[in-house]
């Protein structure tokens, strides 16, 4: 008799670069001698002997139906499996800039992301306290005030092909002192 297959579950949503759970095949007809699939998603492997998909999809894909076909000497039977691959979440944190001198020091803001890939999406920095510090060209921070204050910076990384956007705010306390007509600013990262 012809194979008569069904897939359980018939759909799955998974985060990009995460292993799929996959499906099981039920066959109420004759034994299948081989299996085929309409297309193999990037990052996954299809086993023609068992009919199963495995692995971790490496590309974000909208809901896509894949047709699995079981074949034997009497004919073939097909069932569909719909896979949706969504972007992963990530976090971003501004790197503690350490001690800075008022008036002469400007410094470049840097950050770390988790996962660590910065290549997927662009990072932009902003100051929430422009009377204390501002962000200029090439992510340079300039200290603007001679009085004590809090420099609050935040970083935003845009959504890319693999990851969702993320925003993180960091507060750095500025302790300014005058010494020989020069003011010093010490930035400490508050956790």
Task: Explain what the structure shows.
With 191 residues, this protein is mainly beta. It is built from no helices and 18 strands. The strands form six sheets. Strands 10-18-17-16-13 form a five-stranded antiparallel β-sheet, with no helix packed on it. The termini are far apart.
Rg measurement, Å: 27 Å
The strands making up the biggest β-sheet line up spatially as: 10-18-17-16-13
State the distance separating the first and last CA atoms. 67 Å
Classify the helix fraction into a percent range.
under 10%
**Overall pLDDT:** 79
H and E string: EEEEEEEEEEEEEEEEEE
Continuous helix count: 0
Quantity of strands, as a count: 18
What does this entry show, briefly?
By secondary structure, the chain is an all-beta fold. 0% of the residues lie in helices and 54% in strands.
């Amino acid at each position: 008799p012809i194979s008569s297959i069904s897939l359980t579950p018939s759909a799955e949503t998974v985060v990009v670069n995460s292993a799929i759970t996959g499906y099981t095949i039920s066959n109420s007809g004759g034994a299948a001698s081989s299996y085929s699939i309409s297309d193999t998603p990037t990052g996954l492997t299809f086993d023609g002997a068992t009919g199963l998909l495995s692995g971790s999809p490496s590309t974000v894909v909208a809901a896509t139906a894949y047709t699995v076909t079981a074949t034997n000497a009497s004919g073939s039977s097909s069932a569909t499996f719909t896979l949706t691959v969504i972007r992963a979440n990530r976090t971003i944190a501004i790197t503690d800039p350490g001690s800075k001198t008022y008036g002469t020091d400007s410094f470049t803001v840097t950050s770390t992301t988790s996962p660590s890939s910065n290549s997927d999406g662009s990072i932009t920095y902003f100051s929430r306290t422009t009377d204390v510090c501002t962000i200029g060209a090439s992510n340079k921070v300039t200290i603007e005030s001679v009085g004590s204050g809090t420099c609050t910076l935040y970083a935003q990384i845009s959504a890319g092909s693999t990851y969702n956007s993320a925003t993180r705010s960091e507060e750095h306390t500025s302790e300014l002192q005058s010494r020989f007509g020069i003011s010093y600013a010490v930035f400490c990262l508050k956790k």
